[in-house]
Design brief:
- The chain is α+β, with helices and mostly antiparallel strands.
- The chain has one domain (about 1-300, about 390-430): Roll (2,3-Dihydroxybiphenyl 1,2-Dioxygenase, domain 1).
- The chain is about 45% helix and about 15% strand.
- The chain has a five-stranded mixed β-sheet. Strands 7-10-11 form a three-stranded mixed β-sheet. It has a two-stranded antiparallel ribbon with strand order 1-6.
- The two termini are about 40 Å apart.
- The model has no long low-confidence stretch (mean pLDDT about 90).
Length: about 475
C-alpha cells in the first residue's frame, strides 16, 4: 500500500513538475528559492531551521485552485481527503479585496504534527460566490449556474479512487499510480477553446470570475515554494528580469521574530489559449490568470496575537493615509518596532504566539524543585520552547496577491446586500467540518504542556 502521506508527497512533486513545464518562470522561482535557502542556511546555521528543517522547507509547496460550485468544492474535498488533507480555515476574499474578487476560500492541508513534518503540502481552494448579487445580477447568475452545472471537473474514476484511498488510508501501487495521473491531469491547463464572448462577459465583472466560470475546466493558478528570506528572493528575481508585483504582502521585514506569513509573486503571464469567436471560428488569444507566488512562514499567533497584528495593520493604514508620499514598508517597520514584541520570549510571555514545549536535555545545575509556571521553566532552563509554524493564510494578503495580478478592478454593487457565507455554511456544503486553525495550534501547544507536566511531575499544576 502507498500511504496517504506518500500519495500527498508524490502528488506535490508531480504537480510541481507539470506546472514547471507549463509556466517556465515557476522553475526559475523554485531555483532562486533553493539558492536563497542554501545561502541563509550557510549564514545563519541552525537558527535558519528554527521554523522547520531545511528538508521540509525545500520540499514545501502550497497550491491554489478555483472552483465554481459547492458540488465541485465537495469533490475537491474528496480528492484532497485521499491525501490526508482537511479543510482548515474560512477566508472571505470578497470583503478583504478592494477589487472585485467574488470568492470564499478554505485551505486543504494535513493537521497532525507528524503528517505536517512528513509533507506539509496545502492547497488554497476558492469557490465562486455565484449567489452574491453585488457581482452577478439575476440573469447572469442563471447563465453562470447553467454553465457550471453542465461541466465535469473531476472524473468519476478519480473520485472513486479518492474515496477508497481515504477509507483505506492509502492505495495499492497500481491504483495509486492511476489516481496520481488522473489527479494531476485535472489541474493541467485545458486545451479546449474558450468561449471568448462568455469569458469577456464575466471578465467585466471580475477577472477571477472569468477564470473560474468562463472555462470548462480548472487549473493550478499558482504553486508556491517556501523561502527563508523573501526580500532577498524578490531582489534576485528582479535582477533576473522577472517582473514582480509591487510589494511583499503581510508583516514587514524587521529585527524581531517572523510571524504569520509573508507572500509575493511574479506577475501573471500572458499565456496563449485557443478561443472560439462568436462566428464559431477558433483563433489564438491570450489570458493572464496564472502567476508565481512565493512565501516565507513565521510563528503562529494566538487569537490575542492575531488581534494585535490586525490592530497594527490598522495603525499602518492610518499613518499611510496621513503620509501618502512615505513608503508603506518603512511605516510598517516603524509601527512594528514600536508595538510588536521583539523576542520569542516576550511573545510567549504575553500569550501572543503558540509554542510547543519539551524538557531540556539536562536539568539545570541547581537541580532543585522545578517552578510551576511555563515561563519560569523556560527561563531557568528546565524546558525548551519551540515556535509553532503558521500553516495557514491571511485573507488580506491573499486578496492583495489576487489584486496585484488582476487585469482590472471589475464591478461590485455595494448598494446591494451581499450573500451570506461563513465557515458553517462551507462545512455543510462540502460535508465535512471546516476546522478552526486556532484550535489546532492550541491543541498542539496543550499536548506539549501535558507531556512536560508528566515528565517533571507537575501534572495538575502545569497546562
Amino acid at each position: 500500500m502507498i500511504s496517504q502521506w506518500r500519495l500527498r508527497a508524490a502528488f506535490a512533486v508531480r504537480l510541481s513538475e507539470m506546472y514547471g513545464r507549463e509556466v517556465p518562470a515557476y522553475t526559475t522561482l523554485v531555483d532562486v528559492s533553493r539558492e536563497v535557502n542554501e545561502d541563509v542556511l550557510r549564514t545563519r546555521g541552525a537558527d535558519a531551521e528554527r521554523l522547520g528543517s531545511i528538508g521540509r522547507v525545500t520540499a514545501e509547496r502550497h497550491g491554489a485552485i478555483r472552483v465554481g460550485t459547492p458540488r465541485e468544492l465537495a469533490q475537491v474535498a474528496r480528492v484532497f481527503g485521499a491525501l490526508g488533507m482537511h479543510p482548515v480555515g474560512f477566508y472571505d476574499l470578497r470583503e478583504a479585496a478592494a477589487s472585485a474578487v467574488p470568492v470564499v476560500s478554505t485551505a486543504f492541508r494535513p493537521v497532525d504534527g507528524a503528517e505536517l513534518a512528513r509533507n506539509p503540502f496545502r492547497v488554497f481552494t476558492s469557490m465562486l460566490t455565484v449567489a452574491d448579487p453585488r457581482f452577478f445580477d439575476a440573469g447572469l447568475r442563471a447563465r453562470l449556474a447553467t454553465f457550471l452545472d453542465g461541466r465535469e471537473l473531476f472524473p468519476p474514476e478519480l473520485l472513486a479512487l479518492a474515496d477508497r484511498a481515504a477509507a483505506e488510508r492509502g492505495l495499492p501501487a497500481d491504483d495509486a499510480e492511476r489516481f496520481l495521473a488522473l489527479a494531476v491531469a485535472v489541474f493541467e491547463l485545458s486545451k479546449e477553446p474558450v468561449d471568448r464572448a462568455w469569458y469577456r462577459t464575466l471578465e467585466r465583472v471580475s477577472a477571477v470570475a472569468a477564470d473560474i466560470g468562463g472555462v470548462r475546466g480548472t487549473h493550478i493558478n499558482h504553486l508556491t515554494p517556501r523561502v527563508l528570506d523573501i526580500d532577498e528572493l524578490y531582489r534576485r528575481m528582479t535582477d533576473r528580469g522577472v517582473e514582480m508585483i509591487d510589494t511583499v504582502q503581510g508583516p514587514p521585514a524587521w529585527r524581531g521574530p517572523d510571524v504569520l506569513l509573508r507572500q509575493t509573486s511574479f506577475r501573471a503571464l500572458a499565456e496563449s489559449r485557443p478561443m472560439r469567436t462568436e462566428d464559431g471560428d477558433v483563433v489564438r488569444g491570450s489570458l493572464r490568470v496564472r502567476f508565481g507566488e512565493v512565501e516565507a512562514r513565521g510563528i503562529a499567533l494566538t487569537r490575542a496575537g492575531r488581534a494585535h497584528y490586525d490592530e497594527l495593520l490598522g495603525r499602518v493604514d492610518e499613518e499611510a493615509s496621513r503620509n501618502p508620499a512615505a513608503a508603506r514598508d518603512g511605516i510598517a517597520r516603524a509601527v512594528w518596532e514600536r508595538h510588536m514584541p521583539g523576542s520569542e520570549e516576550e511573545l510567549a510571555a504575553r500569550g501572543l504566539a503558540f509554542f510547543t514545549y519539551r524538557p531540556a536535555g539536562r536539568r539545570p545545575r541547581h537541580d532543585g524543585v522545578p517552578p510551576t509556571g511555563i515561563a519560569e521553566l523556560v527561563r531557568q532552563g528546565w524546558v525548551r520552547a519551540e515556535p509553532v509554524v503558521y500553516e495557514d493564510f491571511l485573507p488580506r494578503s491573499a486578496a492583495g496577491i489576487f489584486q496585484s495580478n488582476l487585469t482590472g478592478t471589475g464591478m461590485r454593487d455595494d448598494d446591494r446586500q451581499g450573500a451570506a457565507y461563513d465557515a458553517d455554511w462551507l462545512s455543510g456544503a462540502i460535508g465535512r467540518e471546516v476546522l478552526d486553525p486556532f484550535a489546532l495550534y492550541e491543541q498542539q501547544q496543550n499536548a506539549s504542556l501535558a507531556r512536560v507536566a508528566r515528565t517533571l511531575g507537575l501534572t495538575g499544576i502545569l497546562g
